[in-house]
Design a protein that fits this description.
Blueprint: H1 2-26, H2 32-45, E1 47-48, E2 51-52, H3 53-56, H4 73-95, H5 99-103, H6 107-131, H7 135-146, H8 150-159, H9 166-195, H10 199-240, H11 250-267, H12 272-283, H13 292-313, H14 323-351, H15 357-367, H16 372-384, H17 390-418
Antiparallel strand pairs: 1-2
Helix pairs in contact: 1-2, 1-4, 1-13, 2-13, 4-12, 4-13, 6-7, 6-9, 6-14, 7-9, 7-16, 8-9, 8-17, 9-10, 9-15, 10-12, 11-12, 14-15, 14-17, 15-17, 16-17
């Protein structure tokens, strides 16, 4: 009874503070997740004398390097809620990733995504190998650099009412492909950190990851439509026969598939979020008709706050006073911005010669810069598995937050330079 009381109190305080943090940063036009991360950092590092907010809430963290230490029971439950939150977040992203859009994204989107994955990965890998020589650290940093947050960029474009523009279609298509490639990269990196670095392991894990994705894509194209048609025909026949058609709970089915596929992905050595993302793709074509996006969003919006809070809880602010960590953070942020800008811009120009440099680099390149929640998710997996140090984790969180803050205003300005707002009086319009 006491545990339940303390847990409910801790959850209520954490969720309330998360919403306050989200609301405050939203006033400045920034994504709410940044406020939730900052609240987590504040909670973890707020101490006055012998008193600390962490202790008051019963959030005793696991001691690094101590095998079997899970922290307090309350923290273990909060951590589980955080993990569920990120699973449902990736499931939601999958619900918006239609296979037909993925396969029909076009040459420009495909090449922009590939170049936007290759350059950041090489840069992140080379940088960390040069700094500390640890292959696991380098691999997770490289994987975090690869990420692109499709949600953040899509929100900006949607708010500007430019979803039908040529550049917007390339950005969204490239971001979707980037998500899939990023999941494959994460699967390979996570597998290699657990089973060791060798050509055999790389091939084995890569084949597993690619096979998993290909099977889901084939299922989306050939299996799911037949299942849908079967239930639709059964419903139609029942109506024609004057009977009340049996109705299945689509949300329950989607959640069961999501959890099973997340568990299966974890079981075969891939990340649970990969299974959740692919499960979402299975239902993407019918998500709107079945109202899945709206229903899953209600679950996600509650649970995901605990994930971003937990991201902040893991950040030891004392590491950010280390000069070497600050310098490394600045270098990583610059590389993260430049590699997406150059890689995606070059990919777009090579694939579509009619696209000018402003559209290819200043719009598509900038639009692919935000790492947002995806980079943070990868860093959290690396930290939890012991494959990423506390210092590098802080660097990735800073990089993800910085790119998420820097890119949106630049993208807005670049879009408006090419597509001025309707009814705006320009210089050439004046008498």
């Amino acid at each position: 009874m006491e545990l339940l009381l303390n847990l409910l109190f801790a959850m209520a305080v954490l969720f309330a503070l998360a919403r306050v943090g989200s609301a405050i940063v939203s006033k400045f036009g920034l994504p709410g997740l940044i406020g939730e991360i900052l609240i987590g950092i504040l909670i973890a590092n707020l101490a006055i004398g012998d008193w600390s907010l962490m202790e008051t809430l019963g959030l005793e963290m696991p001691v690094p390097g101590v095998e079997g230490d899970m922290g307090s029971e309350i923290y273990t439950i909060v951590y589980a809620l955080a993990e569920l939150g990120v699973i449902f977040l990736l499931f939601s992203v999958g619900l918006e990733t239609k296979v037909k859009d993925l396969l029909g994204s076009g040459k420009a989107a495909l090449l922009a995504a590939v170049m936007g994955v290759v350059l950041p990965f090489i840069a992140g890998l080379a940088l960390i190998l040069a700094v500390d020589g640890n292959m696991n650290h380098a691999l997770f940093m490289a994987a975090a650099m690869v990420a692109t947050s499709v949600g953040i960029t899509a929100r900006i474009i949607k708010d500007m009412k430019l979803m039908d523009s040529r550049e917007a279609r390339i950005i969204i298509g490239a971001a979707v492909i980037d998500d899939v490639l990023g999941m494959i990269v994460l699967a390979v990196v996570k597998g290699m950190s657990e089973s060791g670095f060798s050509i055999g392991n790389i091939l084995s894990i890569s084949i597993q990851a690619v096979l998993f994705v290909v099977v889901i894509i084939l299922a989306c194209k050939f299996v799911v439509p037949r299942i849908y048609d079967y239930f639709d025909n059964r419903r139609r026949k029942a109506i024609e026969a004057g009977k009340v058609p049996a109705s299945a709970n689509k949300l329950a089915l989607a959640l069961i598939v999501c959890l099973f596929m997340a568990a299966f992905a974890e079981f075969i050595g891939l990340a649970a979020i990969i299974g959740a993302f692919l499960a979402g793709m299975l239902f993407a074509d019918y998500a709107w008709e079945w109202e899945l996006e709206h229903k899953v969003e209600s679950i996600t919006s509650f649970l995901i706050s605990f994930f971003f809070l937990n991201v902040g809880l893991q950040v030891d602010i004392s590491t950010l006073t280390d000069t070497s960590v600050i310098i490394l953070s600045v270098v990583v942020i610059v590389l993260a911005l430049l590699t997406k800008y150059v890689g995606c811009g070059i990919g777009t120009r090579i694939a579509d010669k009619s696209m000018d440099n402003h559209s290819a680099f200043n719009i598509v390149g900038v639009g692919m810069m935000p790492r947002g929640e995806v980079g943070i998710i990868i860093a959290s997996i690396g930290l939890a598995s012991g494959a990423m140090s506390q210092e590098l984790y802080a660097v990735v969180v800073l990089m993800s937050v910085a790119t998420t803050i820097i890119a949106p205003p630049i993208l807005t300005k670049m879009f408006r330079k090419k597509y001025p707002e309707e009814y705006t009086i320009l210089a050439e319009d004046r008498i």
